[in-house]
Design a protein that fits this description.
mainly alpha, Meiotic double-stranded break formation protein 1, two-stranded antiparallel ribbon, two-stranded parallel sheet, Immune_Signaling-Apoptosis_Reg, about 60% helix
Length: about 325
């Protein structure tokens, strides 16, 4: 017997008697406790046979769930994520192999990620906090799998397909998405940019736009940036800069890291576009805004990294010189004395 119901965010959830463990209210609690134990153990450690048995059980459990089984999936994905990160290199390679060998798990991840495009419109109900948390966990785990699969050249049994434009639009047209969800998506975007959109695990779908239908042949700039288009790059840069102004610490750090990788990608693909991006007057205004954000703002690592990124990009120093006022310097010295 199977019953289905709708969550507040429009997700379909189900209870299925063929999986009696899904109905257990104790299992999500147990998984959360396991995750908390992982968080308390800060040091890396070698995983033993018991750890790998548990890893197999949790990954198999995820594969038997549906995207609507939020209460069970979210702590499960967190457990898998930390199992991947909180271990030695030798064990980490085995963890990657275990997770990538689970076809149902990878199929589930794709289904959960695609729920991001179903973000409700203004008139629709908002996602619950648990649904938001599940999306965050899914994006972070997928990004981590991309990085580690590439690092160890692990065998892939099932690919994940994602639409490039939809991933970019999730950041560009963010519709007041929570900061943590944006951080998670940006971590994924950073991973695929670093790999030049080439991964054995990921199949990127590039949908033709209205402009590309009218112009069958790509422009020289678009061809060099493929699978990105020039307008997508510029829109993404503006969106990332706008996120910096929100002054959320974790989000700012992630945005700057993403900008760094994006500029590396542009320098390799089209240095003209890279120079165009860093030479925009908005960069100067953005830096002044961030530097004027409070005491010791000049010492914030993400601002220093952004200044380094801008100066390294070849901006004409006479046109975009950073001037720190005497008051800012005095405040800085007072704060460090």
């Amino acid at each position: 017997m199977c019953s289905t119901y709708q969550t507040a965010g429009g997700w379909s959830a189900s209870t299925n008697s063929s999986y009696p463990f899904l109905a257990s209210k104790n299992l999500p609690l147990l998984l959360r406790l396991l995750f908390l134990v992982q968080l308390r153990n800060e040091a890396e450690r070698e995983l033993d046979s018991t750890d790998f048995k548990l890893l197999h059980h949790v990954s198999n459990l995820c594969g038997k769930c549906r995207p609507g089984d939020v209460e069970l999936l979210q702590p499960s994905l967190n457990f898998l994520y930390w199992s991947l990160h909180q271990t030695t290199t030798c064990s980490q390679q085995r963890v990657v192999a275990v997770l990538l060998s689970s076809v149902p798990l990878l199929e589930l991840l794709q289904k959960v990620l695609e729920l991001t495009w179903m973000w409700p419109c203004r008139s629709g109900p908002a996602l619950s906090s648990s649904e938001e948390a599940l999306l965050c966990s899914a994006w972070l785990l997928t990004a981590s799998l991309l990085v580690h699969q590439h690092r160890y050249n692990s065998e892939v049994h099932q690919t994940i397909s994602l639409d490039v434009e939809k991933v970019l639009n999730a950041v560009i047209f963010r519709r007041k998405k929570p900061a943590l969800l944006l951080v998670s998506i940006l971590q994924f975007l950073r991973a695929i940019l670093r790999q030049n959109f080439s991964s054995s695990l990921l199949v990127l779908v590039v949908q033709p736009t209205a402009q590309s239908r009218m112009e069958p042949s790509l422009s020289e700039d678009d061809a060099s940036l493929y699978p990105l288009a020039t307008w997508q790059v510029l829109s993404l840069v503006v969106s990332l800069q706008n996120l910096l102004v929100q002054k959320d610490l974790l989000l700012s750090q992630t945005v700057v890291a993403c900008l760094e990788v994006l500029m590396e990608y542009l320098h390799k693909r089209n240095q003209g576009i890279a120079l165009h991006v860093v030479s925009q007057p908005w960069n100067r205004l953005l830096l002044f805004t961030l530097l004027d954000g409070g005491e010791n703002s000049f010492l914030r690592p993400e601002i220093l990294r952004l200044m380094t990124l801008v100066s390294r990009g070849g901006i004409d120093s006479s046109a975009n010189r950073l001037c720190i006022s005497t008051m800012q310097v005095c405040t800085l010295l007072d704060g460090t004395s």
